[in-house]
Design brief:
Blueprint: H1 9-21, H2 29-37, H3 42-55, H4 63-75, H5 82-92, H6 95-104, H7 112-122, H8 126-132, H9 141-150, E1 166-170, H10 175-187, E2 191-195, E3 209-213, H11 215-224, E4 233-235, H12 242-255, H13 269-272, H14 278-281, H15 288-295, H16 299-307, E5 314-315, E6 319-320, H17 323-338, H18 346-353, E7 362-365, E8 371-374, E9 379-381, E10 394-395, H19 396-400, E11 404-405, E12 408-409, E13 415-417, E14 420-421, E15 432-433, H20 440-446, H21 452-458, H22 468-478
Parallel strand pairs: 1-2, 1-3, 3-4
Antiparallel strand pairs: 5-6, 7-8, 7-10, 8-9, 11-12, 13-14, 14-15
Helix pairs in contact: 1-3, 2-10, 3-10, 4-6, 5-6, 5-7, 6-7, 6-8, 7-8, 8-9, 15-16, 15-17, 17-18, 20-22
Length: 481
Amino acid sequence: MATIEQPSPALYSAVLHILGNTDSRSRSMSVTMSDLVEHLTAEQAACLPHAFGQVLPLLSKDPERLQFAAHLAVRFDFYEVAAELAKIALAQGDRELKLAAASLCGNPAVEGSVRQRVAEAVADDPYGRIRLDSSAVPGTEDEILLYSQCWPGVRTESEPLLQTPVAVLDWSFPADAALRLAVQLDKAGASVRRLSPEVEIPHWFGAQTVLVCQAPTRIRVLNSHPGFPERRILVEAMPANSRESDKLLRIVNGALTGPHRLSLAAFGPEVEHAVYAPDVFTAGVYSTRDAAFLSGTTSSSLNRLRTRGILHPRNAGTYLWTFRDVVAVRTWMYLKSRSQRRVSSNVVEALARFAGDSTAVRLGATSGGKVLVDQGDGWDDVESGQRVMGIPITDIDEVFRPFEYGGGTTLDLLQANDNTELHPTILSGTYHLSGHRISAKALASVDTLCRREVIEAAYPELEGKSFEDTVSVGRQLLSAI
């Protein structure tokens, strides 16, 4: 991960502005951190904790904002802030700030001298000692609960404590993407921990812990905790857009067990309900032209699949297709674009029969027509239920991305561009302007004079917002054959 010795003046200014102007009583920590990291580069994000710590003294005369900043640092495990926070806590004799510094010292990346200083500050306060040291012995029920939250790896699966899921992020990832994922995980109710490269592995890896990491960190964690389930070690790339972020949240949720789950309802139906859930995967109402465009083929090719009995669209005077039909044909097109050999249409029939699976984190297919589901621990054949290994599997998430076939390039199925997305349960599954229930085709239809003011007159809520790329997608849909 890239690091910078000194944050830029602009970064200091941005941090001070947000912390100094945030109303801690009405603005959540997730939203505040999201505002901080939204537009940062990887280098700026790597430096954010240092900038955060150096801004804290400027808030020392505003106790309310200072405590909000301290709790925000703890929430996102900005252990770099521990030394500055301890200095302020000692100067003010503030117990809350001392406890916040102690929480940050639970990260093994904090220097020993800082940890010693904080230990002296909390003295015999059991709530401070527990935060600092996994060898501390809790006494009361509240102390036991706190200890369980700080050091989840010490307790066992059988203990009946309902705890917050712990998401450990490998801090060798690019810091901007990792921080944005941290915000999403925090919003979903996870406790976020940052695991820096080459530090000792702490007692964080318990019954409800998931690690998102790169391959070397996986090896380090398994060497220290050989009993930790590998299904909860996710060697994944950092998400590059909201769709990939949504997918990773679902994968993390799928790796958690029992009641220790994320609250994906906070993100709305697009994240709470994966596209493979039965009521989502089988939704959508597409005309033949729209279904052909989205699947990367032509209307005549789609009709041939219908007349051969491979697909069975609903006949309502005109044929209406589902999102499942689109995915089935698009997968076939994708496989043909990747193979020099003939690809059987069996994959279309198999996917068109698949009713969806609400527990699936990934859906896969083979060129021979098998449909596979991964519920977080490997691929299983949908029809036989048997574990599948050693054969080429196409992850349907790859099918959703743009690919070239027949001289053209398909759009990303779920996120055509930054402003244009598709979800099968919204507006019958057509592309729409992100954050608005306005279809791309509707915008393109209004845009007959190619003037922004025409659209803004029809949709006043769009004044000052970017929607030109959504109009472009709408034009493509209207011109589909």
